[in-house]
Structure of 2-oxo-4-hydroxy-4-carboxy-5-ureidoimidazoline decarboxylase:
Amino acid sequence: MDISAVNALSYEDFVNTFGNVVEKCPVITAAVWSRRPFVSLNALEAAISDFIDELPESGKEGILRCHPDLAGRDLQRGTLTRESRQEQAGAGMDALTSGETERMARLNEDYKKRFGFPFVICARMNDKANILRQLSERCQNERAVERERGIEEVKKICRLRLQSLLLTDGANKL
Ligand SMILES: NC(=O)N[C@H]1NC(=O)NC1=O
């Protein structure tokens, strides 16, 4: 799907197509629809990024809270979104040893207790070892640093999700 096809989408089709580019935050997609027309994929991505940047700290933390834990309960119960399931599987989160699963769960809980929002990282840009290392290292940061760091990762996830949607046959048919 090229950018002119994106610009021609109705509000409903736009939200149905791009509603989960930021995990469980279709309100962001609904908001940027009014910023059409987009001159390029980059411009659509920039509109999403600007919207996020304009949010107060509580809004940014809210976005982080919409993200499922890596290798967490949703993965175990099969309740992840399609996008998140593919990303987590790609990073090997569905094939951890029981020791790694326990370590991950413990670190995720420590992180949430410290910051009040979950650890977020772009799984498609990292492997298992990297994710575990960063989870443990980032627990040491200040809350404000982690809020911004998590949001940077949300934007990376968003970029890759947008790219996949615009390059797939399914989206081409719209
Ligand atoms: N917690 C967290 O980072 N979750 C995610 N990361 C990613 O790439 N997809 C997710 O759902």
The radius of gyration is 17 Å. Residues 68-157 form a domain with the UraD-like fold (CATH 1.10.3330.10). The chain has two domains: 3-62+164-172, 68-157. The first helix runs from residue 3 to 8.
